[in-house]
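The instructor's notes for this session suggest beginning with a concrete chain rather than abstract definitions. Hand out the sequence below and ask the class to guess, before any prediction is shown, which regions might be ordered.
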Amino acid sequence: MSELLWSALALVLIFEGLLPLLAPTLWRRVFTDMLRLRDGQLRFFGLISIASGAVLWWWLN
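After discussion, reveal the predicted structure:
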């Protein structure tokens, strides 16, 4: 189980690093736009992200 957690963390870091590596200007623009969102909007996107990940995990297992 611990190995699975570390593998998942490694994949998150890889995917998180792709956009700044390949398109830094776009990444900066996306990040700037995110700073303009209200707290409720950010929480909604966080909830959608968690729910999508949980459904995907359930589906794969």
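Then share the key points. The chain has three helices and no strands. The radius of gyration is 14 Å.
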